[in-house]
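Let us practice reading a record.
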Amino acid sequence: MMDLHRFIQAKISGLSARLTRLARIDNAFVGLRPQDMPYAPSARHLTAANARLARVERRIRSRFARLNQGWHQRPPQRVLIDIALVERELDRARRLFGMFYEVFAQRGTSYGPALAAHDAIAEDCYQAIREAAPRIFDGPLLKPVCYMEHGYSPATMRRGVQLSRLLGEPNPFPLIRIPWDRDQPWQSVFLHEVAHNLQADLGIWQENRQAVMRRILGSTHSPFLATVYGRWHKEIFADLAAILLGGPAAAWGMADFLAHPQPRTMTYRPGGAHPTAYLRIYLLAEMMRRLGFGRDATRLLRVWQGLYQPADRHRIPPPLMSSAPRIIPEVVDEIAFQTRRNLAQRALVDIIPFRTEDEEAIHRGAAQLALARDTGLPPRHLVSAAHYALATGRIAPQRLAHCVVEMLTCHLRRTTPREHPPLRLAA
């Protein structure tokens, strides 16, 4: 029995040595140097991260105190269970700490400027709503923070969502994942990811879903169609909001992202949250048409119809295909043009306005970008200008990326962007 007590005591002592290892994080701890600081997340983000870590640490200490109090008087199996409860909280802290460490430490790498540039784009999307709809958000909100990770597409983890990777611990601020090879700031799909966070922070997640399902059921009397579009509502909202944030270029960027061989683009996935890619472009085109960009909508559909011929072969349920011409305008109208209680009886197009003059400014900015000159555009519109500038073929992708990142981060370094010299690549 003495050996058993010594064994358990040693196990508890080893556990005690780990209690405070994951309690706090700061810029110096993750290795950020003075030259990295302009690209680091704000002090408020660090405060929020440390507050979350401190909360988990308090749970760890509380569990450990109960474990350590008179453990030798309890049965060994009960002690092992109490140890496991402490280990569970340590695992939670380990995962939370690891996520923060990875996100913050990347600002000390060569990706730091590009990540800060994407932060600026996301922040501008929120600012656009604050300007068009003052007081729509309840007080200040921590802006999204971007980080690099593997994966084909960008993704987001919304504010306050309980994450399985953190054993149910809620996310303190939005995180947007950017795949390692998609760090160029002309990726329109990034606006789509920001829009997911906007929908959640505006509080219209459930309101939109219920409205879409009610509209489709009333129009078609088809529970199947109502269920499908109700399941797709989040992705459709993000697509339509991306167009309001960036204009037609966002639709073209999404089409570029969704263009795959026909078997993938024209296959319906039962239970999937994403609309079938073939139909998704028709939703984008309808949104452009409603906004007054009919020529762009027609051009996009001509390209899409040149790529995909439904008559050849597809795996989309007939009710979805046959109803699309009638339902798609209704879905776009319901999500983007109908008022919502949580938007103070305004529609999405009212709180994220995009006008013809915005598109004209974006095209002028694209011409300037092709010459590596500053545009004066807000960050969200700079994404679209970069998309158009790249399409001209008059500026190399690497140089364009360098120019745009510098324009988006110059305020962090308190410098003024000028015409950019050609990039010199190290051998």
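A brief commentary: DSSP finds 16 helices and five strands in the chain.
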